[in-house]
Amino acid sequence: MTAFGEQLSLSLFIFSVSLGIGGGLYETRVVYPNWTRDPDPQTLSIKLRSSGQAGAGRRFWPFVSPASMLLALFNLYLAWQQTGSLRTIWFASAMVIVVKSITTYSYFAPTMMRRIERAEKMDRNILRRTVRKWAALSPLRVIAELFAWTSGLWALILLSKK
What we know:
Layout: H1 3-36, H2 44-51, H3 53-59, H4 61-80, H5 84-116, H6 124-137, H7 139-161
Helix pairs in contact: 1-2, 1-4, 1-7, 4-5, 5-6, 5-7
């Protein structure tokens, strides 16, 4: 692949990670407090809709998250073809997003869709523990994305000097 193609691919990857950071920060700081406080099986679905959490799970993340994963996989391939510190930094950046995506698809999305969005079928104490755990772990994905974004920018700088 040409140097321009590599820079474009890495730039698109960094952009997609940026969208994830923005969405994650917004949800963590603005949306989560509106539905995670005192979750009740009878009212949680209303809180999810009114907070915007339900909408984001249907209209934002289904587009951003898979795009980031696909771009991360392609960037893993491109990073593997490099040498030295560029290879290490670029590869780490992409791999963090792959791991974050796998955890999102294996824990966060299924827990939201199968348990939290169907809260009326859950015991109140189990629901509270589930919501507390989900909301406590979820911001870790933003931290992972911040690492990937920073190291991706670093790799882009190194790539431009190549």
